Amino acid sequence: MSVAGESGRAEQMRAQARDMEQAAERATDPQERQRLKAKARQLKEQSEHPRGTGKQDIDPTL
Q1: Is the pTM above the cut of 0.70?
Q2: Contact 13/40 with Cβ under 8 angstroms?
Q3: Within 13 Å, how many C-alpha atoms sit on residue 11's CB side?
Q4: Using CA atoms, how far apart are residues 31 and 35, in angstroms rounded to an integer?
């Protein structure tokens, strides 16, 4: 995927995370609030660490 595509995807994930955080604030059920907050946190982390930059992509023989 291109840099622009990755950037757009990351922004989309951050927007989803913000939406989930707002929904968590409105949730009256404590378990639902925790679930939404956890999902928002996961989306934020994924948006900050795009695919393809993990250790598995590094050739240890180089």
Answers
A1: no
A2: no
A3: 6
A4: 6
